């Protein structure tokens, strides 16, 4: 199948997945018990009343209405887009910082085998620290930073947490990519008397692209997740994470409204992955077919 055919097929499968999700939602709401499904006293499927599971039509209709009854209140979807863009900007800062740190660590581990043995286990261990425990520490440390007119803002703490999640997949993916060239190609570079830096530029970096692009995509998605969670943990306002909490608090009286920022967070993750895919298109001449398959 040609490349355009593959992309068109991926779009169709994505749309089919959305349709299937909508059918499952409405189907379960139609036939599921109002009290939900319980197993040995534990709830395993949600309730199907309108407060717990609004109809999809009600969600869309509510998204087109004003946020509240105040004069000049914008529609829900406009507020969701504004909050999503805010979170996207913070997540982008965290993604860039995390990607740079992850790539530099990958370079270090590729250059020094002892560094790989020493650093890689700690990288894996770092991902076991819960964000809810990490967020207060970063906020407390950041609040003590004061350099001249510069002062640490709360959004910077959110960006640091996002970078904390983003750097790990980039470090692992970049390391695998930098180590991917065949031995015969490395021997060829040695016969040309090419040093480590020239081998890095001419061989290792181009060879790492097929591994680096998926790692960057995963890092972008992780940065979005980290941003949403960190906004809740740090108390940062204006982003999609805080909006999810605020709208959820009105879930009893306005349940359809609470799902709008959740949908916005999902779309935000898809947008971030799409932006990284554009980077992949710019580097597609290095994306070897055998590595992608």
Proportion of helical residues: over 70%
The string of secondary-structure elements, in order, is HEEHHHHEEHHHHHH
Straight-line distance between termini? 13 Å
Structural class label: mainly alpha
Overall residue-averaged pLDDT value: 85
Subcellular location: Cell membrane
Protein name: ABC transporter permease subunit
Membrane topology: Multi-pass membrane protein
Family: Belongs to the binding-protein-dependent transport system permease family.
Give an overview of the whole structure:
This protein has two domains: 1-53; 55-292, MetI-like fold (Orthogonal Bundle), CATH 1.10.3720. It is mainly alpha-helical and 293 residues long. It has helices at 3-31, 56-63, 76-111, 113-126, 131-143, 154-178, 183-191, 196-234, 240-248, 259-282, 289-292; strands at residues 37-39, 42-45, 146-147, 150-151. It has eleven helices and four strands; from the N terminus they run αββααααββαααααα. α3 packs across α6 (154-178), α3 (76-111) runs antiparallel to α8 (196-234) and α5 packs across α6. It is a multi-pass membrane protein. The chain crosses the membrane at residues 7-25, 76-107, 119-143, 155-175, 211-230, 258-283. This is ABC transporter permease subunit. It is found in: Cell membrane.
């Amino acid at each position: 199948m040609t490349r355009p055919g593959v992309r068109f097929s991926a779009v169709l499968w994505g749309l089919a997945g959305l349709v299937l999700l909508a059918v499952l939602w409405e189907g379960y709401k139609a036939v599921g018990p109002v009290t939900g499904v319980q197993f040995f006293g534990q709830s395993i499927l949600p309730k199907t009343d309108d407060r717990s599971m609004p109809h999809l039509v009600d969600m869309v209709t509510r998204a087109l209405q004003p946020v509240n009854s105040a004069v000049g209140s914008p529609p829900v979807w406009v507020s969701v887009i504004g909050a999503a863009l805010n979170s996207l900007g913070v997540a982008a800062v965290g993604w860039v910082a995390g990607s740079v740190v992850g790539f530099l660590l990958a370079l270090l581990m590729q250059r020094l085998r002892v560094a790989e043995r020493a650093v890689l286990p700690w990288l894996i261990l770092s991902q076991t620290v819960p964000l809810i425990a990490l967020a207060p520490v970063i906020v407390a440390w950041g609040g003590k930073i004061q350099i001249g007119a510069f002062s640490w803002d709360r959004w910077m703490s959110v960006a640091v947490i996002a970078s904390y999640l983003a750097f790990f997949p980039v470090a692992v993916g970049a390391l695998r990519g930098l180590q991917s060239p065949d031995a015969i190609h490395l021997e060829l570079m040695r016969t040309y008397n090419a040093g480590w830096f020239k081998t890095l530029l001419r061989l290792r970096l181009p060879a790492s692209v097929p591994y680096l692009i998926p790692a960057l995509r995963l890092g972008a998605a992780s940065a979005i997740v980290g941003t949403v969670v960190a906004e809740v943990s740090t108390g940062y306002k204006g982003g999609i994470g805080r909006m999810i909490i605020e709208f959820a608090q009105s879930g009893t009286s306005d349940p359809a409204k609470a799902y709008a920022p959740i949908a916005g967070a999902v779309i935000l993750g898809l947008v971030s992955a799409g932006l990284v895919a554009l980077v992949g298109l710019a580097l597609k001449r290095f994306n070897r077919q055998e590595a992608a398959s």
